[in-house]
Amino acid sequence: MIAKTPAPPYYAVIFTSQKSEDDGGYSQMAQRMVELADLAEGFLGMETARNETGITVSYWRDLESIKKWKENTEHLLAQKLGREKWYTNYKTRICKVERDYEF
């Protein structure tokens, strides 16, 4: 599903990853992160796709909202487990959306 975002400007956090073979608890944690993000102040929506490479784009009102999300206690645990167990590598990019359009 394509996220319904407001008129720009807003921010996008692009999380690109490659998973390891160990999936133990990943799906449950991923679902919990979606639930938590949805409750976070400044969260606008998200889009995700996964094959060999996973890409999740979350949209945020401002940089302060992104900072607070990164510091969320449960999110910190998910980040730690991701590095130790679920991902062989990942990259996070933060972008300011200045223009969008749709069909």
The ordered H/E elements are: EHEEHHE
Spatial strand sequence of the major β-sheet: 2-3-1-4
* Radius of gyration, taken over Cα atoms and rounded to an integer in Å: 14 Å
Number of domains: 1
Question: What is the CATH level 1 assignment?
Answer: Alpha Beta
Characterize the biggest β-sheet: 4 strands, antiparallel
The helix count comes to: 3
Shape: globular
CATH topology: Alpha-Beta Plaits
Give the low-pLDDT segments: none
CA(first)-CA(last) distance: 14 Å
Quantity of strands, as a count: 4
Short description:
With 103 residues, this protein is of the alpha+beta class. Helix content is 35%, strand content 35%.
Describe the fold and architecture.
- Helix content is 35%, strand content 35%.
- It contains three helices and four strands.
- The chain has a single domain (10-97), classed as 2-Layer Sandwich (Alpha-Beta Plaits), CATH 3.30.70.
- The chain is an alpha+beta fold.
- The protein has a four-stranded antiparallel β-sheet with strand order 2-3-1-4.
- The longest helix has 14 residues, at 26-39.
List the topology elements:
Blueprint: E1 10-19, H1 26-39, E2 43-50, E3 54-60, H2 63-70, H3 73-86, E4 87-97
Antiparallel strand pairs: 1-3, 1-4, 2-3
Helix pairs in contact: 1-3
Features:
103 residues; alpha+beta; four-stranded antiparallel sheet; 3 helices; 4 strands; 35% helix; 35% strand; globular
